[in-house]
Amino acid sequence: MQQLQLPSPLGLIEITASQHGIHSIYFVDHSNAPEHSSLAALAECKQQLSDYFAGQRQQFELPLAATGTAFQQQVWAALCTIDYGQTCSYAAIAQQLNNPKAVRAVGAANGRNPLSIVVPCHRVIGANGSLTGYAGGLERKLWLLEHEQKYGLALS
Questions:
Q1: pLDDT digits 0-9 by tens, 107-134
Q2: Which stretches does DSSP call E strand in the chain?
Q3: Residues 103-107: contacts with CB within 8 Å, 24+ apart?
Q4: Helix %, strand %, coil % of the chain (to 5)
Q5: Measured between alpha carbons, how far is 89 from 27 in angstroms, rounded to an integer?
Q6: CA proximity to 66, closest of 105, 30, 15, 32
Q7: Is 55:91 a contact under the CB 8 Å cutoff?
Q8: H or E stretch including 104?
């Protein structure tokens, strides 16, 4: 497993990958990763995230290799169907999975998403439109949603 870090408008982001693809993208509070890596997937992820923060990318095209249960994988795949600049509720995702009673399980799987931003768990909000938990913090979630609103209109 190799890693690198990317400075972003929201703080330092750590990206880890193997030969199989990107395993995780997390916000971190301190640097401990090397500047360079031999894995092409890490360099490509760093570039695509930089493009995203610059308002030049709405979709990611990366080899993803996050590990999780079958249900978590289903939820993470559903998250990827939420359009850039849009939001969705946990209940809507449960409905999409044909399991309307799984709202809490969807929330738990969403909270365990290891691929911040790329698998857009920040686009999930409460049924009443309120911002709900985000592993990176609600201030980052709000920033990401506002960023996508701003650039979603500009790139349309």
A1: 999 999 999 999 999 999 998 989 988 8
A2: 2-8, 11-18, 21-28, 88-89, 124-125
A3: 105/71, 106/75, 107/132, 107/133
A4: 40, 20, 40
A5: 23
A6: 15
A7: no
A8: helix 103-111
**What token pair was written down for 156?**
């349309």
What are the residue numbers of the active site?
A: 121
**Distance separating alpha carbons of residues 42 and 44, to the nearest angstrom:** 5
Closest CA to 117 of 155, 152, 145: 145
> 122, 58 in Cβ contact below 8 A?
no
User: What is the 8-class DSSP label of residue 115?
Assistant: B
- pLDDT value at 156 more than 50: no
Q: Answer whether residue 84 shows pLDDT above 70.
A: yes
* 3 state DSSP class of 14: strand
Round the average pLDDT of the chain to a whole number and report it. 91
Task: Report the distance separating Cα 102 and Cα 100, nearest Å.
Answer: 5
pTM summary value: 0.88
Is residue 79 a contact partner of residue 110, using CB atoms and an 8 Å limit?
Answer: yes
